[in-house]
Design the sequence.
């Protein structure tokens, strides 16, 4: 059985924050979102040629998928790609919870197929991975990947899929200047050597690496990300200042440089987009070149910050 290779964009568009309710302080990110605002984001993204949207059932327990499905309704399905996820920790109790969760996602997203379907977190690779095979055979899922899996879990999932003529076609892990465990664990090397696209999420550490936040101007109070990051903003200042100064030379912002760093490392960053002007930053990031000494300086400052941004849902790799 032949599979079309996944066409990997330079940057994917993240919609985790789209699962927030829209009320300030109510939700993981504490984002204020409106349908009209997100339609503006989609319009700008579409015009700039960014086409892969990444979501998951557990982002707002269906809310992110529902909102995204609404926003993309006015585009031809062939004009965009959808990436969503099966999360074992939220599985139902039916005979085939993976197929069930996919059906629910298809309904919310208003489509009959998903371009890239992920097993979101490892929770018994032998149990869950085989469920992807009939979904691939049916055409409801075009490509499959694994997220938050360690190297042996990725290899095991690949072996299971391989026996049916498929393979792990993408890996998605938390990867940023502050959190490079996928590199240290050999996962980036594994992906590179096998031509598997590596998608990096939390590249901007939920906004902490944008340079927009400081002790005087912390992340939105009452949100999960504020609890995680506000206490470390002083340690991040030297790094975000360096990101800003590198950006200034190229007419770009700190966030654009952090994104360009992830691209330079051979990954596809998934950048959360909640405002139309964020798309301008993605355009700048894709056209930016970082010198090797700049990359080294940024990584040294990130190491010196000495913070641990591993998510509560992530295992040590």
Sequence:
């Amino acid at each position: 059985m032949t599979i079309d290779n996944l066409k990997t964009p330079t940057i994917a568009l993240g919609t985790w924050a789209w699962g927030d309710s829209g009320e300030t302080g109510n939700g993981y990110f504490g984002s204020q979102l409106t349908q009209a605002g997100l339609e503006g984001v989609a319009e700008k993204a579409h015009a700039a040629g960014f086409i892969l949207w990444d979501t998951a059932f557990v982002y707002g327990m269906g809310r992110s998928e529902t909102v995204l499905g609404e926003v993309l309704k006015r585009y031809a399905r062939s004009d965009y790609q959808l990436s969503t996820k099966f999360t074992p920790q939220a599985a139902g109790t039916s005979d085939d919870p993976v197929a069930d969760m996919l059906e629910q996602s298809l309904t919310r997203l208003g489509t009959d197929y998903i371009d890239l379907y992920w097993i979101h977190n490892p929770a018994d690779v032998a149990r869950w991975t085989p469920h992807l095979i009939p979904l691939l055979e049916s055409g409801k899922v075009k490509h499959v990947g694994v997220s938050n899996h360690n190297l042996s879990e990725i290899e095991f999932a690949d072996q299971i899929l391989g026996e049916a003529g498929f393979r792990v076609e993408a890996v998605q892990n938390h990867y940023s200047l502050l959190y490079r465990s996928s590199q240290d664990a050999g996962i980036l090397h594994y992906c590179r050597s096998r031509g598997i696209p590596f998608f990096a999420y939390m590249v901007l550490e939920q906004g902490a690496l944008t340079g927009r936040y400081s002790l005087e101007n912390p992340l939105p109070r009452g949100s999960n990300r504020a609890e995680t990051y506000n206490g470390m903003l002083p340690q991040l200042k030297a790094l975000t200042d360096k990101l800003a100064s590198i950006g200034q030379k190229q007419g770009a912002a700190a966030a654009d440089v952090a994104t360009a760093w992830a691209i330079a490392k051979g990954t596809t960053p998934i950048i959360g987009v909640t405002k139309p002007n964020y798309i301008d930053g993605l355009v700048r990031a894709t056209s930016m070149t970082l010198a090797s000494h700049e990359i080294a300086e940024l990584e040294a400052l990130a190491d010196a910050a000495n913070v641990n941004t591993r998510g509560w849902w992530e295992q040590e790799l």
The chain has one domain: 12-305. The chain is about 40% helix and 10% strand. Residues 12-305 form a domain with the TIM Barrel fold (CATH 3.20.20.100).
